[in-house]
Amino acid sequence: MSQTFITRHPSTLWVLAFLGLFTLLVSVFSEASGVGLISTSFVKTLGKTLCLCLIAIAMDVVWGYCGILSLGHFAFFGIGGYAIGMWLMYARTEAIVTHSLSASVIPPTEVEITDAIGNQIFGVVGSSDFPMIWAFAHSLPLQLLMILLIPGLLALVFGWLAFRSRVTGVYLSILTQAMTLALALYLFQNDSGLRGNNGLSGLQNIPGFEETSQAQISIAFFWASSAALALGYLLFAWVTAGKMGSVIRAIRDDEARVRFLGYHVESYKLFVFTLTAVVSGIAGALYYPQAGIINPAEIAPIASIYLAVWVAIGGRGKLYGAVIGAVFVSLLSSYFTGGSAPDINLGFYVIKWTDWWLVLLGLSFVAVTLLFPGGIASLFDKLTRKS
Amino acid sequence: MSTLLEMSGVSVSFDGFKAINNLSFQIAEPEMRAIIGPNGAGKTTFMDIITGKTKPDEGRVIFGEKSVSLLGMSESKIAKVGVGRKFQKPTVFEAQTVRENFALALKNPRGPFEVLRHRKSKRGAERIEAMAEQVGLTEELPRLAGELSHGQKQWLEIGMLLAQSPRLLLVDEPAAGMTPAEREKTTDILVNAAKTHAVVVVEHDMEFVRRLNCKVTVLNEGSVLAEGSLDHVTQNPDVIDVYLGR
Questions:
Q1: Stretch A312-323: mean pLDDT, rounded?
Q2: According to CATH, what is the number of the domain B2-244?
Q3: pTM assigned to the model
Q4: Are B104 and A258 a contacting pair at CB < 8 A?
Q5: What's phi and psi for A79, nearest 5 deg?
Q6: Which residue from A209, B145, B161, B193 puts its CA 20 to 30 A from A195's CA?
Q7: Is the complex ipTM higher than 0.85?
């Protein structure tokens, strides 16, 4: 079946082959292999970019294919990051605490250990008690389950309420923005149980791998991100192909007509919304151990708007368009905001890219929307059609 | 011939304006029925009520042998029970091929997980070919629906309606904007469909209605003014008054 699927969708094969080659090249030239042409921090940047590609294709399915302009998918990404971050932080603190307490003459009791971990983690927000939401943080399998469950359930409940009342278009977008904003505001509070604006940190240290170098950990996460992107791409290529793709594109173009054909439009939207939310959660869970830190600012509404901009610039309604957009814009963004882009001296005024990058991004967004509604991917299509 | 749809005592008002006023209507299966009436007579609201888009304030709408009530059902549920609707403006999915448009309409399980597991079948392909032939779009199957002419889009939509295998077809102004040759073909398609289905055609054009050669219901101000053959109703003084008197 997969054979025929691939032959019917050659672009999927190309993307996967390219991704495989890219992963191989980066691995060979990384510090982990000993060649060291690509620094560990750049491997992390590339790994993070792959995670952003994963959430971008999710966004493309929900927006480009199904027509739901969700401006809240970064909330699910952030939740995935927090879910893995809780375990990383707990397990690492536990290891440190047990180690330091083991030096004492009297062996520490379980309560003492828990208190000490609580003190370490929540001391920064003036607390030492474990909130309810940390109930599963000691267990990796349970916390991994949370990565899927929390974004999935949130999307399911939110989507059910919104789609059932037939909220569409710009109103739905505003609603999703409100959801992200509410979540970010909640997380900013010190008593949210997730360390307020400090967020979770030290996530690059993987418990049980203290002896492993960051170079090797970065490559492992790079592979994991690459594999997740490949699987996510295959999943979405399969979902958007065939009849399912036909129905959701029809919903995008004329939802009322689809309803009169006998399809329960709300179920389809809910399915797409929830599935993409879960994938976004997975992407976030792979992203933040590479970033090392997560705080509520990551979930701010603007992040989800950027996501829409990537997809629009890359090309809506084509999965590889979303990948191109995410790679192109996020790498350019880290180039321009990282301070490595040379300033342009106009004599009377110096253009500092750290300040002007957002203007450039905004202008290119407007330009793409007006001049190339198909995004960068449409240029590709033109080239391949000519040859 | 048994009654397929029965509406009785249906009224609906929008902000005090009575769009439908104590309307009663019956159609058998198979039967062809034309509905005519001046603007604002309630023709579109009449269809909206049957398809679940508008909820009436009072009255009953019952369907089929088991006399199930259509009131309170969702649009998609009503479509599944067997009511298909063609809108006045052709609404086909222009970004998809004619074949895909037919495939969307084909009578198949409609749930998301069933659709996800859906495999293209030989039977489905044959059904699509048959439908395309019935509305004369065999050649156009691989083309994008957006590339079709206005008339072809209308036929595609009628074809999609038939592909749904509904028992009742509601067709809103099928001949609007068509050339005489296209009209003739549309008449043939509809007359053919009415051999096995209940078909309700809403139309302005008297000449088109005459060609359908069927029973006519005249609506005015939300209720039935006259019913019978076209010649019969056009001689009715009330109808003449409504149509010609002003």
A1: 91
A2: 3.40.50.300
A3: 0.88
A4: yes
A5: -60, -40
A6: A209
A7: no
